[in-house]
Amino acid sequence: MDLKELLIYIFFGMVQGFTEPIPVSSSGHLVIVQYFMGIEVKDLNFEVLVNFASFLAVLLVYKHDLYELIKNTFAYLSTRKEEYKSDFMFSVYLVLATIPVAVLGILFEEMIGEHLKGIQQVGFALLATAVALYLIRNLKGYKGDKSLTVKDAVIVGFAQAVALIPGISRSGATIVACMALGMKQDTALRFSFFLYIPVSLGTFLLSIGDIAGSSNFSEMALPYAGAFIASLIFSYFSLKWFMGIMKRGNLGYFALYCLVAGLFIVLYF
């Protein structure tokens, strides 16, 4: 492992971290960056680790909200008091919304990896993301945490599953679905990023044995660590930045970015 390769992994961690929380597709941007640099990192351990770093960033940003949600969920289970019911149901909806991506991810992971990671496919996926973001850019919503339904959870869950396709933003797909269903911006944000937690944590736990047992683990420990730290830092500040953008209702800028990036890729590559 030389310095150049270490810096490449750190840079990829920065790209993943910055683009994970915002609706522009982190997986798509990693494909684009690797294409332009002429480097292909076929390293699933890398993807798992940088996504887990983004998961930790989400925990840091939402630590107080998550603590209240978990505390009130268990309080409802033990007391059945009505005051805790909305948080309990929010947790139930998160579980329901996680099922589609878990099932479809297992069924179609190999096909997606083989056929949908080309630069052209990413370009078309970015164009689809641009259209979806443009359509909901001015929606304000009326549903708070207490107004969600099973139908909302299922639809958002399938929207997250669509984001298995590189170029379709996970945060973008879930936020678009949330806001199209009438959720307020803060509820859409919380539901979207809380939904990221079980997916990322589950993937990491299932992969930890493969990571620790990989033949090149000792050789890759330093670049893994560099990419992990870079992803954690950039994910944290990118999410805080995006939360401010959501409050100001500026999603149209992301729609424009995805449109320009998608057209450039489709027309020239």
From TrEMBL:
The EC number(s) this enzyme carries: 3.6.1.27
What more the UniProt record tells us is: Bacitracin is thought to be involved in the inhibition of peptidoglycan synthesis by sequestering undecaprenyl diphosphate, thereby reducing the pool of lipid carrier available.
Q: Where are the transmembrane segments?
A: 6-32, 44-62, 88-107, 119-136, 193-215, 221-239, 251-268
User: What does the entry list under GO cellular component?
Assistant: plasma membrane
Entry superkingdom: Bacteria
Q: Where in the cell is it found?
A: Cell membrane
* General function of this protein: Catalyzes the dephosphorylation of undecaprenyl diphosphate (UPP). Confers resistance to bacitracin.
Reaction(s) the record says it catalyses: di-trans,octa-cis-undecaprenyl diphosphate + H2O = di-trans,octa-cis-undecaprenyl phosphate + phosphate + H(+)
One GO biological process term: regulation of cell shape
Q: What keywords sit in the KW lines?
A: Antibiotic resistance, Cell membrane, Cell shape, Cell wall biogenesis/degradation, Hydrolase, Membrane, Peptidoglycan synthesis, Transmembrane, Transmembrane helix
* Presence of the UniProt keyword Transmembrane helix in the record: yes
Q: What is this protein called?
A: Undecaprenyl-diphosphatase
| Species assigned in the record | Fictibacillus arsenicus
Q: What is its main location?
A: membrane
Which family is this sequence assigned to? Belongs to the UppP family.
Which EC class is the enzyme in?
Answer: hydrolase
Q: Which InterPro entries match?
A: UppP
Entry's Gene Ontology molecular function annotations: undecaprenyl-diphosphatase activity
Q: How does it sit in the membrane?
A: Multi-pass membrane protein
